[in-house]
């Protein structure tokens, strides 16, 4: 694995290189998606323009600390990870997310991006695995989905539906077919909304309809009860 760039020691270059407002950087097990269970550094960017009713990271809506990209890369390197996930909030709401993703890839990490699907992904470095949400009606943010993003997904990427009830499931099943998602990306993820839909119900619906999707439960909620920093 290549080493990240050394930390910049001058304020002018820090401005030139870009900076991001960061809520937290931590090392944990990936709780979901294709790399579930693998040790991963999470870089959680502050801020999100959405307000999903089930949001479990509202603490990332505000606050945080401005960090130059070199300082972020330096902190990530301290964990010597193989996998790095850039998440939020909505990470693409900050323009310097794009150079961060590129520099993390340049440093040799396997990089993924968790995004709400509401902001354009066209400029994301193609080496990044995009995990793109399609917001369901019960999230109350389905009107924010940017369906133009689907054209920019590849076999490296994943699409996630957080499903709150049977109506959400039917909606997700329709979108799966409408956009032929199973053929377009590596995994389509159906995740029961924690606390509102029993995982067993979702599992039985998927089996009854023989859907080409991967059901997932969020590992970190079982291990750490969704505490920040995990
Ligand atoms: S997009 Fe994600 S971070 Fe933003 S409100 Fe929805 S669940 Fe929360």
UniProtKB/TrEMBL annotation:
It is an enzyme of class 4 (lyase). SUPFAM superfamilies: Radical SAM enzymes (SSF102114). Its EC number is 4.3.99.3. GO terms for biological process: tRNA queuosine(34) biosynthetic process. It catalyses: 6-carboxy-5,6,7,8-tetrahydropterin + H(+) = 7-carboxy-7-carbaguanine + NH4(+). It holds the Pfam family Radical_SAM. [4Fe-4S] cluster binds at residues 48, 52, 55. Pathway: Purine metabolism; 7-cyano-7-deazaguanine biosynthesis. Its cofactor is S-adenosyl-L-methionine; Mg(2+); [4Fe-4S] cluster. Mg(2+) binds at residue 57. One of its GO terms (molecular function) is S-adenosyl-L-methionine binding. HAMAP family: QueE. NCBIfam families: rSAM_QueE_gams. Catalyzes the complex heterocyclic radical-mediated conversion of 6-carboxy-5,6,7,8-tetrahydropterin (CPH4) to 7-carboxy-7-deazaguanine (CDG), a step common to the biosynthetic pathways of all 7-deazapurine-containing compounds. This is 7-carboxy-7-deazaguanine synthase. It comes from Parahaliea aestuarii.
